[in-house]
Specification:
The complex is a heterodimer of chains A (194) and B (420).
Chain A lengths: L4 H17 L3 H18 L1 H30 L4 H24 L2 H11 L1 H31 L5 H33 L1 H8 L1
Chain B lengths: L1 E9 L2 E10 L4 E6 L6 H8 L2 H4 L4 E8 L5 H6 L3 E4 L12 H8 L20 H13 L5 E5 L10 H15 L2 E5 L12 E4 L21 E12 L2 E12 L3 E5 L6 H8 L7 E6 L5 E4 L12 H11 L6 H7 L15 H15 L3 E5 L7 H16 L3 E6 L2 H4 L4 E6 L2 E4 H7 L1
Parallel strand pairs in B: 3-7, 3-8, 5-6, 6-7, 11-15, 11-16, 13-14, 14-15
Antiparallel strand pairs in B: 1-2, 1-4, 9-10, 9-12, 16-17
Helix pairs in contact in B: 8-10, 10-11
Classes of the chains: A mainly alpha (194), B alpha/beta (420).
Chain lengths: 194, 420
């Protein structure tokens, strides 16, 4: 657990900027493997999240980029595509590791020292980020159980209804969060009364 | 606190009318009323959330709290509000983080697992945590919405004795809105009845299993663990077609986990779950709002009825579930009790063989609970099976099969009672 969130943020931003300037495939691969091994040692769940969600998502975007590149230029630059894939996977791994290792109350207090509104914004954004994935899983599992999913078309319908519901619930959660901040958070109260 | 001739309306619809009241320091006041009578609106007006956050409301009359307007009291940090819907009310990831953000000492909440992830705490545990953090927040006016819907049958008396001590020691004002004041009225110095529902005696018909045919779901020796902690231990249960089962237990005893195992959402670490082919399951989750699409009550009901190819007349269903006068309202404007009725109406039109309901009485008043019992009997007559999980032992006793979930083990409640 990192007690000084300022150092954590500085490290994350510095490594991310450095990674963006790497244009050699082997160096990019080496940095990615070092970051991935460190994540694996610190928290196995980060490596699982990377393997299950983030790397496949970045791969899809890379594939789309290659298709667009092929349509526009008539050729595909595989090396640039792989370097980009490694860059973004590395940044995702660093961010996830840091977010998981950071002491959030200390981070909020740190930001609150800079500006109370910044502290509130950060607390709320971390909370919303975390609640989004849970909300999506909850909606999806309830509809998957309740709608009889037999065919491929049913699966598409399940995603459409889940997305529609998700949008409205996110708005509802945002309103509830403001209620919570209004009536519970001293930081917010202090900001409002000053 | 003095309230003079308070009236509240939204878009021409009157919610509260002509409320006048005085509350002294050191008083615990209770607000009674049926589902949708305006109890939560009343609390939100007193705490200043309306009109500070929800500006569509028209609030008339005078309210003075410690000589200030509600909004001023809110901004001075003298108010704490414990809402009905607890899920979105946290900023931190664990209770310990939340307390650090709020600047409250962790000694406030000894019976809460402070290092557990907030997403993994039960509804009742979250509610208790919100309640404790409100009491320790330094607020002088605390509004508590529907505690009996969240705190289990075994602990509510003890929790309210603590609130009573707090009110006396701190000379604070506590206003509690609840539809079920029978257990709480001994703690109230005053009771405000918003719609005259308190006088009505609440009795329910029994829930009777008419026929039990084949077993549709069977779980054997199921174990579920999370972060090294056993939530279900060696649980076995079989559900017959046409059977009604109640699973009762304290907050955090693992009821929701068991329902998720029955609904195939959670795969157990050990044990066997077998579900008869062609069994259609409908799950009503504990959280009443977090799975509704947008639209009016009627539209939501119509669109899902169409998906289930239900031939049921929508107007009849609205009538059955006391929703006919709310059919044009947006589902997100309903009270918690009303959303629960809509969830049950959706379960009804789904024509599922197995209907699983997590905390069915959440936010429900006597009339809604009677309706619910009648609907269960209709569903049983139609051959569906019902499984509910509740922390309300009195309500669970209406069922002819009742199981107690205690320390992860499922016990037939009759044999448990005999063993003392």
């Amino acid at each position: 657990m990192f007690k000084n969130p300022g150092i954590v943020l500085l490290t994350t931003i510095s490594i991310s900027i450095a990674v963006m300037f790497v244009d050699d495939l082997y160096i990019a691969l080496m940095i990615f493997l070092i970051v991935l091994s460190t994540s694996l040692i610190l928290d196995m769940r980060i490596a699982i999240a990377l393997a299950r969600y983030i790397i496949p998502m970045i791969t899809i975007y890379t594939a789309i980029a290659w298709i667009i590149q092929f349509i526009v230029t008539g050729e595909i630059d595989l090396v640039i595509g792989f370097i980009n894939l490694l860059r973004f996977s590395t940044i995702a791994a660093i961010s996830l590791t840091m977010l998981n290792s950071i002491d959030i109350p200390n981070l909020i207090i740190f930001f609150n020292r800079l500006s109370p509104r910044l502290g509130i914004a950060l607390a709320l954004s971390i909370k919303m980020m975390k609640s989004f994935s849970k909300t999506w899983i909850d909606i999806h599992t309830v509809y998957k159980t309740n709608l009889n999913i037999d065919s491929y078309i049913d699966k598409i319908k399940l995603y459409i209804i889940s997305v529609r519901v998700f949008v409205f619930i996110v708005m509802y959660v945002a309103l509830q969060s403001i209620e919570a901040l209004l009536t519970r958070c001293r930081i917010f109260k202090a900001t409002r009364s000053t | 606190m003095s309230i003079e001739n308070l009236s509240v309306e939204i878009r021409g619809r009157e919610i509260l009318r002509g409320i006048s009241l005085e509350i002294n320091e050191g008083e615990l006041v209770c607000v009674a009323g049926s589902v949708g009578s305006g109890k939560s609106t009343f609390l939100k007006v007193l705490t200043g959330i309306i009109p500070e956050l929800y500006r569509g409301f028209r609030v008339c009359g005078n309210i003075s709290i410690f000589g200030l307007k509600p909004v001023e009291v809110l901004h001075k940090g003298l108010v704490a509000y414990v809402p009905q819907d607890v899920y979105s009310f946290f900023i931190g990831s664990t209770p310990r983080e939340e307390l650090a953000i709020l600047g409250i000492d962790s000694s406030c909440c000894n019976d809460i697992d402070l290092d557990n992830d907030i997403d993994h705490l039960s509804d009742g545990q979250l509610y208790r945590f919100l309640l404790y953090s409100a009491l320790f927040s330094g607020a002088k006016f605390i509004a508590i919405d529907e505690p009996s819907s969240h705190i289990d049958w075994w602990s509510i008396g003890e929790v309210f004795r603590g609130i009573e001590r707090f009110v006396n020691d701190e000379k604070a004002i506590v206003v509690v809105a609840d539809h079920k004041l029978d257990t709480l009225k001994k703690f109230c110095s005053k009771i405000i009845d918003l719609d005259g529902s308190r006088g009505s005696y609440c009795s329910f018909p029994s829930i009777i299993t008419l026929q039990r045919s084949k077993v549709i779901v069977e779980i054997e020796n199921v174990w579920v663990s999370y972060s090294g902690k056993s939530i279900l231990r060696d649980v076995s249960l079989s559900i017959n077609l046409g059977e009604a089962i109640a699973i009762v237990g304290r907050n955090g005893s693992g009821k929701t986990t068991l329902l998720k195992v029955l609904s195939k959402i959670i795969k157990p670490g050990r044990g066997r779950v077998s579900i008869e082919r062609d069994t259609r399951i409908f799950l009503v989750p504990q959280n009443p709002i977090y799975w509704f699409p947008n639209g009016s009550v009627k539209n939501v009901l119509e669109s899902l009825a169409k998906r289930y190819r239900s031939r049921e007349s929508i107007n009849n269903v609205l009538e059955m579930f006391n929703l006919i006068d709310k059919q044009d309202r947006d589902v997100y404007s309903l009270s918690i009790g009303e959303t629960r009725m809509l969830s049950l109406a959706l379960a009804y039109v789904s024509k599922a063989n197995l209907i699983i309901i997590d905390e069915p009485t959440l936010g429900m008043d006597c009339r809604s609970m009677k309706t619910f019992v009648n609907i269960i009997n209709t569903l049983l007559e139609n051959g569906s099976s019902i499984v509910i999980a509740t922390h309300d032992l009195d309500f669970a006793r209406l069922f002819d099969s009742v199981y107690l979930l205690e320390e992860g083990r499922l016990i037939d409640i009759e044999s448990h009672d005999k063993d003392g």
